[in-house]
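ok so I'm stuck.
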Amino acid sequence: MSIVLRDIREKFNITKEDMAKKLKITRQTYYKYESGESELTLDVVKKIANTFSVDYNDIIENRIPQNIEYNIVEGKKNNKNEVAKDIRIDIPQENIEKFKQIFLYIINKIGSKPNVGQVVLYKLLYFIDFDYYELFEEQLMGLKYIKNDFGPTPVSFAKVIKQMEKDSLLEEVKTKRFDYNMTKYLPLVEADLSNITAKEIKFIDEEIEKHGFKSAKELTELSHKDIPWIGTKTKEIIPYEAVFYRNTDTSVRSYEDD
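replied:
not stuck anymore, here's the structure
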């Protein structure tokens, strides 16, 4: 049945998240169906057949339907094989100004700690962004992260930090810790939190409390257990949507309650 699900989804050019919404099931449940990890229930089979005008037997026999004419936009119908163009798919977009203030907030709180250098900050930013996305299904900073051998790296980091130095918002300091070179960042101003919600600040504080004391090695090892990082090829952008595949090592959401 997983082949049928994937074929229907690709024909309509919609995400797994949208499929889950259409079928009124959780994202994680849908992922298990499409991956073949779980068998479809009869109730879900009926929903697929009714929603996408697919023959019931095609789904049961895992046979790719030949004719699909359903338009997923509520209240409208398109001609055969015409794909709806106004489906909203939420893809996090970088918010550089918000990142600057959050980064200042973080280094004001823990930047002076001996364990907190560039590597720790990379991983902390990654977990803040990806944990928030898993919990609330919306972006916080929405930075893009690339997969490197030592874990996720924010793509725009170096460029933004240089601009922040130029604007006298922070200072970059080179130092050593246990004979290793370390890059630290010292804030020169307080963060402007006027555009950051109380919910976001509370979440950031919780992430700092959870990860801020860990070493670079510990955070790197933890990031290597995260499904978004595992499932991405080296030097490619890590997709936010992969957080819904997470296992118990890094997941921050209880899907049984969804």
